Fold this protein.
Amino acid sequence: MNAHLRLLFIFFLLVLMGVLIGCDWKGTKIGGARPVNLYVGSTDKNLYAFEVESGKFLWKYPTGGEIYAQPLATNDTVYVAATDGALYAISSDGKLYWKTQLVPADKAPQYKGLRTFTTPLLVVGTIFVPSAYQGTIYAVDMFSGKLTNSYSLGADTQAYHLLTLGNDKKTIFDNAEGIGISAFEYLGQPKWSKQRYVYGPLYQFRDGKLAGFAGSQEIFFDLTTGDISGYGTDFHHNVISIAEERINNATYYTDSSGRVTKESGTGSWAVFPYGFDPLKTGSFVVSLNSNADLGLFLASQNGHVARLDEKDGHIIWDHQYPEEFRQLPLVARINQNTSSEFRVIVISKTGHLYSFDGNGNLLKNDNTSISGEVYQAPVAEIP
């Protein structure tokens, strides 16, 4: 073999070795730095995809119904339920993997709007989809789209919100309109079901308790029986949203007075970022990763987007727009490696997208891509 052929052979061998160890010919980890997508549904029946880093519009996929439920996203697939009664699995480049009809097509029209479906939950390869059709929770295989199980809570009920607690991936807790709260073992027979008035979704309290709110009063429930096991804080105003911060073991709340409250074992505070302003503060979210806290952010119904200091609640940066933000801000890393750079993205009710960096600099303002109304927060892929 002459010198030229030997060099060519060595080059191809190095390229092959790079592929085998997961790198491309430039030495970049394959799949490790792919830009992250975000997804949002609209009342115009389309699912929209944008790039997190740039805010660039990527594609839209037309479903058979309006989209009110927040999508569920993994690292290569997004799942979305529409008012046509179907669940769709769509690839990260906008191609349909499968479509499964859950609510019978002739029944779906009577459950229009937010009552058709609420946000799906992924548990060990199974997607659980809560619906208003006879209070049914559907279990769907995430790969094939096959309906594997379902359970009805009864007529005139709404399967509202699902969650699992900690490492317990077998128990699914549901807050159902008209029936209270229930626990299921992978959608077998209910472990228990209780008539409990709970305002808004259930959540995991910082010590692992199952918690919810009856208006302004925080209530804790026994995980094995569903009985009330204690009471937390009474905020004297209806609590609008809750966010759990695992790293510093804190819980953040917003209530209808415009107050933001932090409670933790190491220190608490309460602030009115914009003064006493009932029903205007909207909602906020704490976004975390396995290494560090990305921050505390809020979006308000009177057009504010802000970052608060987690230590004392003071405003770090704040912008206001002639918009109504009714959804949580999305806080997401810009790619699928360990980069610390992230974006704060909010989408108004009318579909206008705003993207900021962590310092509050406006990077993107897109008011043309989404044509319908948006009722749920966008969701980013899981790296």
